Each structure stands twice: as C-alpha cells, then as structure tokens.
C-alpha cells in the first residue's frame, strides 16, 4: 500500500497528459470518424479495443462499438461499456451530429460530462453510469428534446440538478443516484414523476420525490439552480449550514476522487477485480518463452518463469504509459525490474523482437540495461536492471529529502552522456522520443541512467501501422515535433533542455504555477529572460547552488530549448559544454578554502 501512496503524489498529471496526437495530414476519414479519433486520443488506457479503430478507414462504421446508419454512413450508436476505458470524455463527441445512443457505462472515465453533448440533438439515450465523472451536470442536456434515457448514476457528480432537465418531456428513465448532488430536485417538469430510486445516495438532495422537504421559505427554491454558484450561495446562507457540510463532503469526495485517479493504473483493477489483474501469472500460464541477451541472465528459463508465476499486484513498483512495472527478486539475491506491455497486435511480433534484440545489445554506463524478455501470447515482459534509487521524477517531486546541487549536476551529466551515446555512438542511432524525469532512473549512489529508449518508437509502430503519431509526454515535447510528428535527435535535445530546467527548478514542466500564467517551464524561462533574472528559476530548496555553474547550465538549457531545431546543440556538444563550463573549476572556488577543491 505504501508504494501506491508514494506513487500517488506522483506524476498522475503526466499520465493523464500522456497521449498520442494523431495528425490530420492526408486523412480521408469522414467527420464522425474524425470526432471519434479525437475521442479515442483523449483516452489514456483501455483493454485494447481502441487500437482496433484504424484511422485509415474511410468511415468508422466497422469499428468495434460503433454503429452507423446503413444509408448515410453517419454514426448513430457509440457503445463501449465495460472496456476499462480511462481518461476524459472528449468534447468532440458533441460533433457526432446524428448520435442517438451514447453508452459508456462501467468504465473509468473521469473529468466532466462535456456540455457539448447538448449539440447532439438526436440523442435518445445517454448511459454514463459507473464511471468517475465529476463536476456539474451540464444544463445543456436540457436541450436534448428526444432524450428518453439518462443514466449518470454512480459517478462523483456535484452541484445541483439543472432545472432544464425538467423540460425533457420524453424522459422514461432518469437516474442520478450515488453521486454528490445537492439542492432541490426541480419540481416543475418531468422529474416530478420519478421516484426515490432515481435519486438515492445523494445526501444533499431534497424534494418531494425523496420525501425530503427543502427548508426554504419560498418552497421550491431556485429551481434554476444550475450553476455551482447557486449551490454554493445556498450553502453560504446561515440556514443552509447543513448543506455547507454536504458540499464540503462533496469537495472531499472530489479530492478523494483525484487521489483515486492517481492510481487508476495500478490500483483500480486490483480493487475492483477486473480481469486484467490476473496479470503475469496468466500471461505465462499458457506457454511462454524467455529470451536472454548475451547470457545476461544466469538463470534457466524454467526458473524465471516460475518466479514470474508468483508475481502479483504486491510487487508493482510503478506504472506508466506502457503498463505496469514489477520488482522481480531472484533466489540468489539479484533484483530486476519487469515491465509488462500488453500485446496489441498479431503481426508485429517479429518486428518487435528484432527491435528488442537491438535494444538489448546496447550497453552503457548511463543507460538502463535490458537483459531479456519473456514472450507470451498476451504480453511482452521486459526484464531490466532494477535501480534502487527510483526515478528522478520521484527524487525531485515526491521525496522530502532534497537533492543537493552536486547531486543534481551529476544527474544532468549522466543523463546527457546516456543520451549522447544513443544519438552518436549507437548503430543504428537511437532517438529516445520520451526524455522526461520519470525515464531517468537513479542507482543507489544517485548516478543517473536513461531508461525506455526506443520503446516509444516501438510501441508507436505497434499501435498504428501507418499514421505518424507523436509519442512522448506533454511539457517535454519540442514545438516542431508536435506539429510535424517527426522525431529527430534535436527533438530529444529539446526534451533534455526541459529536463535540465526541471532539475534546476524542482518543478514539473507543466507545474500549476506556470499554467496559471499561461506558460510552461520554457515559457517561464523566456519570461524571466526578458527581465534578466533567469537565476530566479532555481529551486529555493536546493542546497549548495554555485552561481557560475548555474549560469553555465542556464545558458546550455536555453540553447537546448530554443524553438528552432538548428539552434539547439547536439548532445555531443552538450556533454562537452557540461564538462568544460559546468563541471570544471570556477575561478572563485580556487580562492575558497572549503576543501571542495578536488572537484575543480
Ligand atoms: N528499472 C527500474 N528500476 C526501478 N524502478 C523502475 C524501473 N523501471 C521503472 N521503474 C519505476 O516504475 C515507474 C514507471 O515506469 P514506466 O517507465 O512504466 O513509466 P513512466 O516512466 O512514468 O512513463 P513512460 O511509460 O512514458 O516511460 C518509474 O517511474 C519508476 O519509479
Ligand atoms: C456546439 O454548438 C455550438 C453552437 O451551435 C457551437 O458553437 C459549438 O462549436 C458546437 N460544439 C461542438 C463540439 O460541435
Ligand atoms: C442549450 O442550453 C443552454 C443552457 O441550458 C442554452 O443557453 C442554449 O441556448 C441552448 N441551445 C439551444 C440550441 O437550444
Ligand atoms: C406525472 O404523472 C401524472 C399521473 O400519471 C400525469 O398526469 C402527469 O402529466 C405527469 N407529469 C409529467 C410532468 O409528466
Ligand atoms: C439507479 O441506479 C442504481 C445504481 O446506481 C440502481 O440501484 C437503481 O435501481 C437505479 N434506479 C433506477 C430508477 O433505474
Ligand atoms: Mg519510463
């Protein structure tokens, strides 16, 4: 449990933001298909159904879960229940003009119900029950005059029921039970005829339907209580102090939800026992083979498989965009990290294996060693060296003890050398594509190693045959990469520059304090530059900052994140600069008799 909590404070935002952007270039799919692809791209994980939605199809009519009108080829039903879909519901769903039924129930959707659904005026049924949706019920749903079925029960919705819902004259089923709704149930309109079972499990609702008087002089107060404001205002008045408590508990509910979302990847499946948690034991039970590189694993396949069979959720040490990571301890005391990647596609096995072979052949002091993998019908289990220091992301953002200046410089140096090796000394050259702090791992001595090189490429190809997709994590992506989808060494250099800024500032590239100002970390650096106070970016909790090396590092980082790729140095050059400008003595240190001079 401690592990989940530790992860929880972690980069969940990145997991939400981790997405593949499909480019609109030369795609001939119809507008409904386009909207559905955008819907798909907002989803961060699924049971594997969505990769089967092929962008190169002319229309989405044969996609799983999608039904079209035979004649017009326009989408009329979208039915994706029980598919472990996790992520927000894209507002683009509102562009499917002729949608009649939207059934997304029993998934892990979070975020709000998009008000754009109000644009789908032909909707007859909305089934969103059994998700983690939060926020208000959009008043726009009241525009859906054809709506007969509306089930949004068992979510985390807050605020009050919009009065516009009362206008839905055709409503047959209505269910908002088990949410955090407050306020009076609209009494003028269809809702008057629904019974308690439609409203149960919301401790803040009142109205005739649930035999709960609304304590208000005017009787049926503010039936137009659509806005959060009105719910809050009511709570603010003295006589509604009871409700204040309830809206506070709704807030706590929302906070809990956020906490819950943090470990959706690892925890929800475990908690609710969905079948994926059969996990590794299942993977290897139906026959599996172990591939080892260079005798890197001094065990028999049988020994390894036996160990794998015993791995379960307790051994999870982290989870990322590709899947979960387990700790694999062998009997001789050696420990490995096992990354589980669910198999998505039949045809790519041979390609995948060839690429893994290449990745396995790359050995370097500053790279995480891939020792082998296990091949099963359901997944690939990649066996890496285990790094006891965890990820740089954790070290910077989740631990209470702070990295000091020398440790930070050393980590930047190691990451630069690892990346320079991939770019300049490997054959074929390797573009990492996903440089970020969670992919820089630390050993017990806080030496950095770059991990997950080549994986982004591999999985991108696995996911979709042809389209150019952008792999990588929001906040670290070079502008031209987001536009063209073409990764180069220089897009990695940009991400490395962002990483340096993250290490210097102790803040994630998309930290709320930047976003509030409409910036990211690079925008912030540029802003500070205009006022000639770049040094202010440095983490106030970092001890031992040396001004000379800070200035040199800022200058390197600034070059790395410059918007035109030609202005960025190569990683080779970055390593040279780091060695000559940052790690070498600064004149003032010679006159400083602190005994630290051996670093000079
Ligand atoms: N070899 C390893 N040794 C120790 N811990 C590891 C190892 N590999 C991964 N981890 C842990 O597991 C976590 C998840 O790793 P993973 O690579 O799956 O996700 P990520 O790096 O956050 O995102 P991405 O999927 O984009 O790489 C890491 O943050 C780290 O804490
Ligand atoms: C919904 O309709 C409004 C008004 O017609 C329009 O401005 C908006 O762009 C539409 N949204 C979507 C997602 O289609
Ligand atoms: C949809 O509903 C919103 C809010 O309830 C309203 O402001 C808007 O005018 C409605 N749009 C249409 C097209 O009815
Ligand atoms: C509620 O039910 C009563 C009795 O069945 C009916 O007369 C009335 O029209 C209904 N009200 C609404 C708003 O549907
Ligand atoms: C509403 O949903 C709950 C489950 O969330 C269910 O128990 C209840 O029977 C439903 N009520 C109606 C009227 O469908
Ligand atoms: Mg990683």
Automatic annotation (TrEMBL):
Residues 311-583 form the Protein kinase domain. Its main location: membrane. SMART domains: S_TKc. Pfam families: LRR_8, LRRNT_2, Pkinase. Keywords: ATP-binding, Glycoprotein, Kinase, Leucine-rich repeat, Membrane, Nucleotide-binding, Repeat, Serine/threonine-protein kinase, Signal, Transferase, Transmembrane, Transmembrane helix. Residues 220-235 have a biased composition (Polar residues). Residues 216-235 are annotated as: Disordered. Belongs to the protein kinase superfamily. Ser/Thr protein kinase family. This is non-specific serine/threonine protein kinase. It comes from Hevea brasiliensis.
């Amino acid at each position: 449990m401690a592990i989940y909590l530790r992860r929880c404070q972690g980069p969940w935002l990145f997991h939400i933001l981790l997405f593949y952007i499909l480019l609109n270039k030369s795609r001939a799919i119809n507008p409904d298909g386009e909207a559905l692809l955008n819907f798909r791209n907002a989803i961060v994980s699924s049971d594997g159904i969505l990769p089967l939605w092929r962008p190169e199809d002319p229309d989405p009519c044969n996609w799983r879960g999608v039904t079209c009108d035979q004649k017009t080829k326009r989408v009329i039903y979208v039915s994706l229940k029980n598919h472990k879909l996790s992520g927000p519901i894209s507002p683009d769903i509102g562009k499917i003009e002729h949608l009649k039924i939207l059934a997304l129930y029993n998934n892990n959707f979070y975020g709000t119900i998009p008000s754009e659904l109000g644009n789908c005026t032909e909707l007859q049924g909305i089934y969103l029950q059994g998700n983690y949706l939060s926020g208000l019920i959009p008043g726009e749903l009241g525009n859906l005059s054809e709506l007969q079925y509306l089930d949004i029960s068992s979510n985390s919705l807050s605020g009050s029921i919009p009065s516009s819902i009362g206008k839905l004259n055709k409503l047959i089923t209505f269910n908002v039970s088990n949410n955090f709704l407050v306020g009076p149930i609209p009494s003028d309109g269809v809702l008057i005829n629904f019974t308690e079972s439609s409203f149960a499990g919301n401790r803040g609702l009142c109205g005739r339907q649930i035999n709960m008087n609304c304590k208000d002089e005017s009787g049926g107060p503010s039936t137009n209580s659509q806005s959060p404001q009105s719910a809050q205002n009511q709570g603010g008045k003295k006589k509604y102090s009871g409700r204040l408590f309830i809206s506070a508990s709704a807030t706590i509910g929302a906070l809990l939800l956020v906490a819950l979302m943090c470990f959706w990847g690892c925890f929800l499946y475990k908690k609710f026992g969905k079948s994926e948690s059969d996990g590794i034991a299942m993977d290897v039970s139906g026959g599996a083979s172990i591939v080892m590189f260079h005798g890197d694993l001094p065990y028999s396949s049988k020994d390894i498989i036996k160990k794998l069979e015993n791995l379960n959720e307790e051994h999870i040490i982290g989870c990322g965009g590709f899947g979960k990571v387990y700790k694999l301890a062998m009997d001789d005391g050696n420990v490995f990290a096992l990354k589980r990647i669910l198999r998505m596609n039949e045809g790519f096995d041979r390609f995948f294996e060839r690429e893994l072979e290449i990745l396995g052949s790359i050995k370097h002091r500053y790279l995480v060693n891939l020792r082998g993998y296990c091949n099963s019908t359901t997944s690939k289990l990649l066996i890496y060296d285990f790094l006891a220091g965890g990820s740089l992301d954790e070290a910077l953002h989740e631990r209470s003890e702070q990295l000091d200046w020398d440790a930070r410089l050393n980590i930047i140096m190691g990451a630069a050398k690892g990346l320079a090796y991939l770019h300049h000394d490997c054959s074929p050259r390797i573009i990492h594509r996903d440089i970020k702090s969670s992919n820089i791992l630390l050993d017990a001595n806080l030496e950095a190693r770059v991990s997950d090189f080549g994986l982004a490429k591999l999985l991108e190809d696995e996911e979709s045959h042809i389209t150019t997709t952008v792999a990588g994590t929001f906040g670290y992506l070079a502008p031209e990469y987001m536009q063209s989808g073409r990764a180069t060494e220089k897009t990695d250099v940009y991400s490395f520059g962002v990483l340096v800024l993250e290490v210097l500032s102790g803040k994630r590239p998309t930290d709320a304090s930047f976003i509030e100002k409409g910036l990211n970390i690079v925008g912030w650096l540029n802003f500070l530059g205009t006022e000639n106070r770049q040094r202010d970016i440095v983490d106030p909790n970092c001890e031992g900052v040396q001004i000379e090396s800070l200035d040199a590092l800022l200058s390197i980082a600034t070059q790395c994140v410059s918007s035109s790729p030609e202005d960025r140095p190569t990683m080779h050059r970055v390593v040279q600069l780091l060695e000559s400008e940052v790690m070498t003595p600064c004149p003032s240190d010679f006159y400083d008799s602190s005994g630290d001079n051996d670093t000079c």
